[in-house]
Amino acid sequence: MKWIVEEDFTDLQDGRKIYRKGKGFPRPANKEVDPKRLEELATTQNRQGVPLIRKVEEKQRAYTNTDDTAEPITEKTKEKPKAKKTTKKASTKPKAKSKKEQG
Asked: Would you say the pTM of this structure is higher than 0.90?
């Protein structure tokens, strides 16, 4: 389960660690947090009186495209496509002469 910070706050129960809106909670992400503390921060039952974090549901399946009709990612589809080689266009500007060529 993943949590995202909804409002900037300083966690007074975690060494005054500062959390910024849009970032993950807790830091580090694998840190164990008491479920009662998560509930406190996710509701109005905290010093600021507003929900400070929200739960983000992790998707069960990842897809190669954004629509649900795409095939699920498999070992075969995880490979990154190879970049296409591009050729450089010939420059139309004349090259500047070096000092040796100039004099």
From this structure: no
